[in-house]
Specification:
alpha/beta; Rossmann fold; Arc Repressor Mutant, subunit A; 2 domains; 5-stranded parallel β-sheet; 4-stranded antiparallel β-sheet; 8 helices; 12 strands; binds calcium ion
Length: about 230
């Protein structure tokens, strides 16, 4: 029998705690709930949750500090929950190793989708399953072995840099990637301030793979944060 995934929730806001508890109990997850960052840091090694949902504004220590401590020994997926006014912390959280984020208020649908993606990624990483070289979503097919991209069965020509970007997105499909992360991976560590570069490349990629580049179906913008290649 498959055991239900265990989720550690770190949240001090009662209404959000209740919302998370109700939504996740109805969807076959086991839950552990704590209100303080230090409790999360001390409980994670003994309970080994499959996923952590972490509020950034905690009563004792900063959520960012919790991520840093956890990431020093573990790759347990972390989904950050942030308030609207914490835009900057959200990006910092992702750059410190959080896997994804939700901005309050969020819907059950969004929450479940983020959890599914993060659990899927961590299972792939831990089981060492060879990821199929072909990525498919809707009419988009990317073959990482042949380095080919097709839309509705038509081959699309990409420049080498465009291909590098799409391959990075495919490797992290479903996850949000920050501008900083993409720039560092494609152009190297000195490129951090060149996000206008990235915008141009993304616009060109969209022209090639999207039916309506203004309303992307595959390559979505996470405003102020980065980009996400949808995988469902
Ligand atoms: Ca809080």
């Amino acid at each position: 029998m498959e055991t239900k995934p265990l989720i550690l929730i770190v949240e001090d806001d009662k209404p959000i705690q209740n919302f998370l508890r109700t939504s996740l109990n109805n969807h076959n997850y086991r839950l552990l709930l704590v209100e303080k960052g230090k409790e999360a840091i001390s409980m994670a090694p003994s309970h080994m949750p499959d996923l952590i949902i972490l509020d950034l504004g905690l009563p004792d220590i900063d959520g960012i500090e919790v991520i840093k401590q956890l990431r020093s020994w573990s790759s347990i997926p972390i989904i950050v929950v942030s308030a609207r006014e914490q835009e900057r912390s959200k990006i910092e959280a992702l750059d410190c190793g959080a896997d994804d984020y939700l901005t309050k208020p969020f819907s059950i649908g969004e929450l479940l989708a983020r959890i599914r993606v993060s659990l899927r990624h961590s299972q792939i990483n831990s089981s060492n399953t060879r990821i199929s070289s072909e990525f498919r979503v809707g009419d988009l097919v990317i073959d990482c072995e042949n380095r080919s991209v097709k839309i509705s069965n038509q081959f699309i020509h990409l420049t080498p840099t465009e291909y590098k970007i799409i391959a990075l997105l495919v490797k992290n499909a479903g996850k949000v990637l920050t501008h900083h992360y993409i720039l560092k991976n494609i152009w190297g560590p000195s490129s951090e301030n060149e996000s206008q570069y990235l915008r141009v490349f993304m616009a060109n990629l969209r022209k090639k793979i999207e039916t309506d580049p203004a309303q992307p179906r595959y390559l979505v913008t996470e405003i102020g944060v980065g980009y996400r290649l949808l995988d469902e």
